[in-house]
């Protein structure tokens, strides 16, 4: 797995551009990696008894909805932006027996 935490350099850049150079805390992870669940989704995923900072394992199936290329004329950086729609997911809590991705998403075939 890849650690998606922002590097110290990126955090410093965010502090100067977003926080006006203040010494406030920059987020640990990029904004686009956060998932918010409503009460129906919490119930569906059986997360009623979860707590802050609890570690979980998220397994998801998703599809790419859009791909675009962008270039920033100011600093000549090119980037690719991708929008991903999660279509199915499972959350494993605790130290239950680990399942394979296919079994987690689809059960026994």
Number of helices: 3
Q: From the alpha-carbon coordinates, what is the Rg to the nearest angstrom?
A: 18 Å
The class by helix and strand makeup works out as alpha+beta
* Unreliable runs: none
Number of strands: 2
SSE layout and pairings?
Elements: H1 8-17, H2 39-44, E1 56-72, E2 77-93, H3 101-106
Antiparallel strand pairs: 1-2
What would your notes on this structure say?
- The structure is a single chain.
- The protein is α+β, with helices and mostly antiparallel strands.
- The chain folds into two domains: 1-33, no CATH class; 35-106, no CATH class.
- 20% of the residues lie in helices and 31% in strands.
- The protein has three helices and two strands, in the order H-H-E-E-H.
- It has helices at 8-17, 39-44, 101-106; strands at residues 56-72, 77-93.
- A two-stranded antiparallel sheet has the order 1-2.
- The longest helix has 10 residues, at 8-17.
Question: Could you name the key traits of this structure?
Answer:
single chain, 109 residues, alpha+beta, 2 domains, two-stranded antiparallel ribbon, 2 strands, 20% helix
Task: Describe the structure in brief.
With 109 residues, the protein is an alpha+beta fold. The protein has helices at residues 8-17, 39-44, 101-106, and strands at residues 56-72, 77-93. It folds into two domains: 1-33, no CATH class; 35-106, no CATH class.
């Amino acid at each position: 797995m890849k650690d998606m935490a922002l590097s110290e350099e990126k955090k410093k850049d965010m502090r100067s551009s977003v926080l006006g150079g203040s010494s406030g805390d920059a987020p640990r992870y990029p904004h686009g990696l956060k998932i918010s669940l409503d009460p129906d989704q919490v119930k569906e995923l059986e997360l009623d008894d979860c707590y802050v900072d609890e570690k979980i394992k998220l397994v998801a199936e998703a599809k790419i909805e859009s791909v675009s290329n962008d270039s920033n004329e100011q600093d000549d950086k090119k980037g690719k932006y991708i929008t991903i729609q999660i279509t199915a997911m499972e959350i494993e809590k605790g130290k239950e027996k680990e399942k394979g991705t296919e079994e987690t998403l689809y059960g026994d075939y």
